[in-house]
């Protein structure tokens, strides 16, 4: 009897060791795990800030890490609300995790500056923004630009014709026929180079050629007042919208009117709200923090958020100005 007990204890210990080892061994895939929404008030400082009404605007982050072998073998061990993503969806061929982290840091720095400019302009401040080219903010994995252009590239010419704004870039590429190749002048890491890229028909207009990138205005921005934003190790551009809303709150706008507000969405320099990833996990994070209202980019982002929102009210927006109006006018709905 005692021998059976010893064997049973040994098997139990072996099982625990096996589980621990499987949990420690990473796979090639990544997993997105929800985090709780967090207040921006202690993270954002604004020169001339006034005593703000209401509660801080919240931002929502997502933990991103390698999936463990245990989670791969036993999906029920994955955290609630998490999603597994194949490596190639997060790390294009030839890209390392360190390079991805550096790009996320650069995206965050630009997000902070653009959010400040957008918020101040909407509140009537004079903001100087001198166009310097067209910033590549995303490259579709199955597009001609994949492997040729990178996030953070600045485009300044098409077949030798200078372009400085996204509209000029679209117009110049639009002179071609789908299937044509275009030579783009690219500023990358401070150096100019030429990159030749194919074109394909636009899904929205088969007669219009595209290369498969998302772009924004690259510009030298000068703010009229000092604004500081520090999220520590958090990277990426998706907190641009909550940054701008919190800046507006600190400059006297009653954002939320008594409701607890969270937001996600990248901002373009013209105030447009750009879709972001991991909306399922971000919506879980908003729910877990007892948020009343979650402001998200319109379209697919909003549809995903509504699927997982439970009692949280989803406000879908296409611009910062629309978000500010939705949160500062009318009767509270929480």
Question: Can you describe this structure?
Answer:
This protein is an alpha+beta fold and 334 residues long. The chain has two domains: 32-62 and 95-124 and 226-328, 2-Layer Sandwich (Ribosomal Protein S5, domain 2), CATH 3.30.230; 128-221, Pdz3 Domain. The chain is 32% helix and 28% strand. It has nine helices and 20 strands. It has helices spanning 2-24, 69-73, 87-90, 97-122, 166-174, 240-250, 279-288, 300-308, 320-328, and strands at 26-34, 38-39, 44-46, 58-59, 62-68, 83-85, 128-139, 154-158, 161-162, 181-188, 191-198, 200-201, 209-210, 213-222, 227-229, 261-263, 266-267, 273-274, 293-297, 313-317. Strands 7, 8, 9, 10, 11 and 14 form a six-stranded antiparallel β-sheet that branches. Helix 4 runs parallel beside helix 6 and helix 7 (279-288) packs across helix 8. The radius of gyration is 23 Å and the shape is globular. It starts with a helix and ends in a 6-residue tail after the last helix. The model has no long low-confidence stretch (mean pLDDT 86).
